[in-house]
Design brief:
heterodimer; A: mainly beta; four-stranded mixed β-sheet; 3 helices; 19 strands; 5% helix; B: 569 residues; alpha/beta; 17 helices; globular; Amidohydro_3 (chain B); EC 3.5.1.- (chain B); Metal-dep_hydrolase_composite (chain B); hydrolase (chain B)
Amino acid sequence: MKTVTIKLKKVPTLYLECESVTPDKFAGKSLEAIAALPCSEGKSNYKLGDWFEISGSAGATAAETKIDVYGPGTSKCKYFGAWMSAGEVVVNGTADMFTGSWMTGGKLHVKGDVRSFSGLQMKGGEMLVEGRAWNYLGAAYRGDWRGMQGGLIRVKGDAGSDLGTFMNGGTIIVEGNVDIHTGTHADGGTIIIKGKAHRRVGGQMVKGEIYVFKGCDVMMPGFKKVEEREIEVDGEKHVFNVFIGDLGERHSKSKGEVVYGHLYTLKE
Amino acid sequence: MTEIIIKNGHVFDAVTGHKGDVADVCMKDGKIVDKVSNSATVIDATGKSVMAGALDVHTHVAGPKVNLGRWYRPEDKFRLGERCSAKIDPKTKIEGGFSIPTVYKTGYEYARMGFAFLMEAAMPPLYSRHTHEEIRDTPIVDEAAMPVFGNNWFMFEYLKNGEIDNAAAYVAWMLRQTKGYGIKCVNPGGSEAWAWGLNCMTVNDPVPYFEITPKEIIAGLITTNEELHLPHSVHLHSNNLGNPGNFQTTLDSLKIAEDFKPNNNLGRKTVLHHTHIQFHSYGGTGWGDFESKSKEVMDYVNKTPQISIDSGSVTLDETTTMTADGPFEYHLGALNHLKWGNVDVELETSSGVVPYVYDPKVKVCDIQWAIGLEVPLFAADPMRTMITTDHPNAGPFTRYPRLYAWLMDKKYRDDLLNSFKYATKVIDATYLAEIDREINLYELSQMTRAGPAQVLGLSGSMGGLAPGMNANVAVYNINPDNMQKGIELENAFAKSAYFIKDGVKVVENGVVLDADPVVKKTYWVNAKVPENKQVMHDINEKFLKYYSVSLGNYEVIDHYAPHQEIIEV
């Protein structure tokens, strides 16, 4: 795997739209060609070379290309790794909105935080966030009814509200706590919260699984406890209270049986 | 203005009778002329096809429901993968959206495909100012809009009492106030009945409270239309749209036209235009035995010269449906559980917006797709049959090139038909597999140029290449001696080699050059009737009593339509 290192020359005033920073666009290109890729600040058009010092070399295909991103000011760059299908992107710092959104493959490693709308409608690949995530992680884009569909997101810190809304595949693991509306409208997929969740977990969910280790502040009234069971989650075994829901929703049938969403909370 | 000559192209034009023979097309000062001087700009069209600028007879590109669609479908701009704003060209404005594009994208994309004129098919009169503002901001293409009358309280009362003079005076007043083009009628009576939780499923269901039937409404509107000598016929979206077995209602609605004769001096030969007939040609009793009845409907259309139709072909995309047919949108929203928005526009009409996914894996969607292609393929008279997608209801207008390729290449459409998950069931329920016809370029020019121009009463200035007509000319990279097939044909239609609008070259090889020099015109009809005190009294009274705005807030002043082209009748 070959590495391209890009380093911001200065902190942008407005936000930089970095859709070009993916292995798919870098693969097979010379450094000059990479520097000529588009990059806009607000509504002004620039080239990637106007903002970044670019060194190293790109691989022949996306899978053989790794991009190392350095600051200062990566927190003002949007769309890192968005739509990427293979290869690797490492952001040494915090990344702004839409990081890793619409990803279909490859690895994205963010050493700081990711801001709102990251990992939106992701279809595959892995995203590792060492800091915390803001709102709408792995959710659906505004107005859409299809959230994350595949892949894995792991956040070491906390996450914000509306995590995994409209999710219908893939896995999100948050090692810290989350804010309200986790997994609303979920239609599949797995959400694992190692910390505690705020209100309205799993509202209007029709399928999928949500695990909360340190409890939900308030349970939604549409959930019903059915059993207690020992389950292995993320390599650890625990006894969970199993709830089905959201009973207020219209549920589909599979092989004659009604399919429900499942919410698991740790038995104290 | 400069002179332009397009040399050595294969010309397809029903007005001048060119059927692909090599000829030159000359333009001067925005009009087609016989010949030009030696200083004219020469465009070499050797091995290319030349046609007049196309007209879209039925599309939804401006107005409140289109804007609501943009408003509540922010995700629409991601529908083709990456953000559309990623391509930024300094000469054009940023384009966005897929099924409900921004006004800029609408104008540019239509120009890229060689379209010169669009008919916004449903304008709620109360929101006509907004509609005209959006029309004003759509670059390049000329536009007109039709106010809706099929559920209008004034019309109901006048038609119920047989007061055709009053109805005509009201329509004339409305066209003047809203700068409208003709009479649109959506689900006659049904949208009003919906306010009582009902609908009109056949032409004989009475409208509650008004005690008038859809049949009487349609007949009354046609009488009014002919009384006023309007350029376009009544533009009908009949009852019972989208339901299995509705072809009977469609035939009943079409039969109403038999008793009427066209009465105008703008070249229109029809009295009734039935729009998006694909949605109205369904057989069966439910979604299980759902089948095509396009042959039955088209047989009737073919033998009735008073009727014109457009197809409303499904393109198998994810799109956003929007119509003044409120009950239908409620029904669709309940069916797909995605999002639903409806509104009742005071005394005038209702409307709704619902996203819809035409999924090729779903049998019903595939049958709808097949019917949409059968309609133009069964057409005996291409001058009365137009190709539309009822943008965005059956698919976005940007798919017209794909639609043309399906109609012009049997193998291309059959390959898709056979690739469906339920291919055998779809073939059983439709006629498409048996049809060998391939539309040729001349027929296409009739269906998209001369035909719509005649039906809209614009055949004097549009849809042809005769001297004196507007200089709207599209040149495509299609060589009739060695026709491309399938996807290549599609690409050739999507990116015209040249498009000249009013004598200004705006598109070259699919790239919009500069839209600024083009004067974009708004067409409307100024229908004159003797002053009618009764109607003015009724209007004043109803506005005071029921409307949320006063009469003074209603009129579309010239500010909203800076370049008007007024048709006096």
